[in-house]
Amino acid sequence: MSDELWPIIGVDESGKGDFFGPLVIAGVLIEEWDVLALEDIGVRDSKKITDKKILSLAAVIREKYVCNTVVIMPEKYNQLYLKIRNLNKLLGWGHAKVIENILTEKPAPAAISDKFGKDHFITDNLQEKGKQIDLIQKVRGEAHPAVAAASVLARAEFINRMDGLSRQYGISFHKGASAAVDAVGRDFVRINGEGMLNKVAKLHFKNYQKIMA
To answer: Cβ neighbours of residue 171 under 8 Å, at least 6 residues apart?
Structure first.
């Protein structure tokens, strides 16, 4: 990695495939010498780590590195999606926002993101500081330690927000978009009414049609 630009901002998201809960985009700025330290504590793609470990790793990352997190809770997410009608555009806005927020705190020559769509989804949303850096968008970007750290941070925030929703409504919201998620959705609607689903779930998912059928 010595030929890369340092420091570098890694950006990743969590929740885009989950019917319940928010969309979370997180970023972490690391120096070249942080790579081994992150690997030593077990930072890697968050999909390969248990929730308990993710929460403990995220606490270390927040303490030691410049970080930023953008959380779009379901009600706001649904409003934005109705307006934008494109998840990748929404992700692009969130990624750009995180990059700009970190650059405001500390300068960096580059940022790297897992590639989720066309490059312009992020670049179109970058402001003055963001337009001056090199933006790398890479398939399987989580292989880069900065993106891996961001994925851990994003997932930890998603887990915490899901737990908060579960406590608020007294129901255990499932992750993902499976048939088990549909069952929880039906229970939620039966107890709270159809109009409240907007506050806990992403309504453009096919799950919504199944729940309301």
So the answer is: 184, 187, 188, 191
Distance CA 66, CA 149 (A): 11
85: which 2 tokens?
């009608």
What's the CA gap between 188 and 155, in Å, rounded? 24
State the helix-helix crossing angle for 51-64 and 145-169, rounded to 10 degrees.
120
Measured between its terminal Cα atoms, the distance across the chain in Å is 52
CA 132 to CA 145: how far, in whole Å?
A: 22
CB 77 within 8 A of CB 22: yes
Q: Which residues pair with 13 in a beta bridge?
A: 25
Bond preceding residue 145 cis, omega within 30 of 0: no
Q: How many C-beta atoms lie closer than 10 Å to residue 120's C-beta? A: 11
Task: Strands of the chain (E only): list them.
Answer: 8-14, 23-30, 66-72, 110-114, 134-138
Structure pTM? Answer: 0.96
pLDDT in tens, 94-150: 999 999 999 999 999 999 999 998 999 999 999 999 999 999 999 999 999 999 999
- List phi, psi (to 5°) of 18: -110, 125
Tokens at residue 213, please? 């059928």
